[in-house]
């Protein structure tokens, strides 16, 4: 008979481990994690800023890139509080409802990122394989409407697929240890603590992964097979290189998203004997590396993004120089007036 009583979800408290086995080093581990969070949030923030403010980037490709940056920022913010809270303040407790909410948003932004990558692959496919139709579908007057519809469809898709996972968690009872071996609430980690039958939750979680990331990856692969087939039919080597270079950034981003995700699935399914910190570090890599690397890749590989960032920096620099000049002029004028006043006072006293 278990020594742990059944606990209802309303009063349930989980304990987050952070990085199991490396508790002593949490202060040091927090340094690279903090740097990664700052890099991800600032990098994606800059991408969003230049796309919104630079009119030359108001094109479908860059609108989709802004959607990718938004999901990356959401993914970072979903785990930031609990991860840094553990490392800095040893704040390990999290209520059941807060845990479920965090799980939902982590999975939602993951599904949304996969969906955005699929949409970007379709965008690249139509632009290269059928450029005339691309120009008629995404005219200047229809771009924003299409983008908003796509964004809404992605959000609805993620919510509809993930809501049953959240609702089914509430039927579970927890009478064993309430210690989670991650720095955030991870769905497989939570359902393993249940002392009731969790087969439905496990199957539904796997189904949600296959229906979203699995299906999306297949369609992305098919899109690129068609794209490569079309590029190889282009006679001019220069044109082939130009067409391929437009997709290289997206291919890199897709690889960075799916390789850690697939690796994490393999570690959880077949790495039962691996040390606990391996599972935890893989789970953090899967959530942090794509948001960190995506803005770097697009900044390095996309000339228009580089130009827009450089332009915004120059504008900001000019603004700062003007502000400094006006401040200095103000202070110098104040000093000059003070000197004149003191000189007049001295002359009056001599008289």
Strand numbers in spatial order across the main sheet: 2-1-3
Q: Would you tell me the overall average pLDDT?
A: 84
Cα-based radius of gyration, to the nearest Å: 27 Å
The percent of residues in helical segments reads over 70%
- The CATH class, by name, is Mainly Alpha
Number of domains: 1
Our measurement of the CA-to-CA distance between the termini, rounded to an integer number of angstroms, reads 105 Å
CATH architectural grouping: Up-down Bundle
Summed up, the helix count is: 10
The low-pLDDT segments are none
Q: Write the CATH fold name.
A: Rhopdopsin 7-helix transmembrane proteins
CATH superfamily: Rhodopsin 7-helix transmembrane proteins
Number of strands: 3
**Which strand-content bin applies to the residues?**
under 5%
Helices and strands, in order, run as EHHEHHHEHHHHH
Structural class: mainly alpha
Summarize the main sheet.
3 strands, mixed
Characterize the structure shown.
The structure is a single chain. Helix 5 runs antiparallel to helix 7 (199-232). The chain is built from ten helices and three strands; from the N terminus they run βααβαααβααααα. It is mainly α. The model has no long low-confidence stretch (mean pLDDT 84). It has one domain: Rhodopsin 7-helix transmembrane proteins (Rhopdopsin 7-helix transmembrane proteins, Up-down Bundle), CATH 1.20.1070. 78% of the residues lie in helices and 3% in strands. It holds the Pfam family 7tm_4. Residues 43-298 form the G-protein coupled receptors family 1 profile domain.
């Amino acid at each position: 008979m278990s020594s742990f009583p059944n606990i209802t979800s309303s009063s349930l408290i989980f304990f987050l481990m952070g990085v199991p086995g490396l508790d002593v080093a949490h202060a040091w581990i927090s340094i690279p994690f903090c740097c990664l969070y700052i890099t991800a949030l600032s990098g994606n923030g800059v991408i969003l800023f230049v796309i919104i403010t630079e009119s030359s980037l108001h094109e479908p490709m860059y609108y989709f890139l802004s959607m990718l940056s938004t999901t990356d920022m959401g993914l970072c913010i979903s785990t930031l509080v609990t991860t840094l809270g553990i490392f800095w303040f040893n704040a390990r407790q999290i209520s059941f409802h807060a845990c479920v909410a965090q799980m939902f948003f982590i999975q939602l932004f993951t599904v949304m990122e996969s969906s955005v990558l699929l949409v970007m692959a379709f965008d690249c496919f139509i632009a290269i394989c059928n450029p005339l139709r691309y120009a008629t579908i995404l005219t200047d007057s229809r771009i924003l409407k299409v983008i908003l519809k796509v964004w809404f469809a992605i959000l609805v898709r993620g919510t509809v697929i993930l809501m049953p996972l959240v609702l089914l968690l509430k039927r579970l009872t927890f009478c064993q240890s309430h210690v989670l071996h991650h720095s955030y609430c991870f769905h497989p980690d939570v359902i393993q603590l249940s002392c009731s039958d969790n087969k439905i939750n496990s199957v539904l979680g796997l189904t949600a992964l296959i229906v979203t990331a699995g299906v999306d990856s297949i369609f992305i692969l098919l899109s690129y097979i068609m794209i490569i087939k079309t590029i190889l039919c282009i006679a001019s080597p220069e044109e082939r290189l130009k067409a391929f270079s437009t997709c290289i950034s997206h291919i890199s981003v897709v690889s960075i998203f799916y390789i850690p995700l697939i690796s994490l699935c393999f570690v959880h399914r077949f790495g039962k004997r691996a040390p606990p910190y391996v599972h935890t570090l893989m789970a953090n890599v899967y959530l942090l590396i794509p948001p960190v690397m995506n803005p770097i890749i697009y900044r390095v590989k996309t000339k228009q993004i580089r130009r827009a960032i450089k332009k915004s920096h120059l504008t900001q620099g000019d603004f700062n120089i003007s502000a400094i000049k006006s401040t200095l002029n103000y202070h110098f004028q104040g000093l000059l007036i003070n000197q004149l006043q003191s000189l007049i006072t001295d002359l009056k006293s001599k008289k």
